[in-house]
Amino acid sequence: MLRPRIIPCLLVHDSGLVKTVNFKSPKYVGDPINAVKIFNEKEADELMVLDIDATSRGLEPNYALIKKLAAECRMPLCYGGGVTSVAQAVKIISLGVEKVSISSAAVENPNIVKDLAEAVGKQSVVVVLDVIKRKGLFSKGYELSTRNNTRTYKIDPISFAQKMVALGAGEIVINFVDNDGVMGGYDVEYSSTIKSQINVPVTFLGGAGNYEHLSALIDQCGIVGAAAGSLFVFKGKYRAVLISYPTPEQKDIICNNLKKNY
């Protein structure tokens, strides 16, 4: 039986592991290689690593770091940050990474998704969509943002996600900017709407603050990726740095209602 994936998301800034709130004020929380070792021991389902500097600074992907991450990682690894060409994606895959994610590049040049899918296979192409709530008194729903939320686009995320799938994306990640680091829960209702209209695997990121939030997402959406950053690197109200991940028994509880509902 297919199961939901519970995915730690690690943010890299100046080669260090950081955590942000609403994409701002990166706080150093440790060494990414050490974090990977711990998640290996805890048998995480998958790992997502996003370099938050590369695109905004116009930098190449950090191949030296990627090589170290891939060599250490014993679970499927998705890497994103600074990927703007097929050649870069091919090189990242050659270093041992299973999936390459793009975000800003997909919004600014959608056809790159088709090129990437042809070069590395659909299963290795992940499109991360940073979504923000529309501003304004009578505004509803979400729109897209790019480059660490410095640019916004009045584009419907669901329609755009469907376009990405049509072009060859093998997975869509919905990253809720407004919920980043807040730990108040996912937007479960919107997540469910997206899941029902996308025919490839979907992962949701932004808002998880406890295992009940993971469970609520899975109860509502079924077999999805439940990704989180703060939940797996902080502990307690003072946000002390402590890397954690659910045990197999805890994962069974988190996914408890899946058989009942699906």
CATH architecture descriptor name:
Alpha-Beta Barrel
Structural class: alpha/beta
Helix content: 25-40%
What is the CATH homology-level superfamily?
A: Aldolase class I
The general outline is globular
Overall number of structural domains: 1
Helix and strand element order: EEEHEHHEHEHHEEEHEHEHEHEEHH
What can you see in these coordinates?
This protein is α/β, with parallel strands linked by helices. The protein has one domain: Aldolase class I (TIM Barrel, Alpha-Beta Barrel), CATH 3.20.20. Helices cover 36% and strands 27% of the residues. The protein has an eight-stranded parallel β-barrel, surrounded by six helices. It has a two-stranded antiparallel ribbon with strand order 13-14. β8 and β9 form a beta hairpin. α4 runs parallel beside α6 and α8 runs parallel beside α9. The radius of gyration is 17 Å and the shape is globular. The model has no long low-confidence stretch (mean pLDDT 92). Keywords: Amino-acid biosynthesis, Histidine biosynthesis, Lyase. Its EC number is 4.3.2.10. Belongs to the HisA/HisF family. It catalyses: 5-[(5-phospho-1-deoxy-D-ribulos-1-ylimino)methylamino]-1-(5-phospho-beta-D-ribosyl)imidazole-4-carboxamide + L-glutamine = D-erythro-1-(imidazol-4-yl)glycerol 3-phosphate + 5-amino-1-(5-phospho-beta-D-ribosyl)imidazole-4-carboxamide + L-glutamate + H(+). Heterodimer of HisH and HisF.
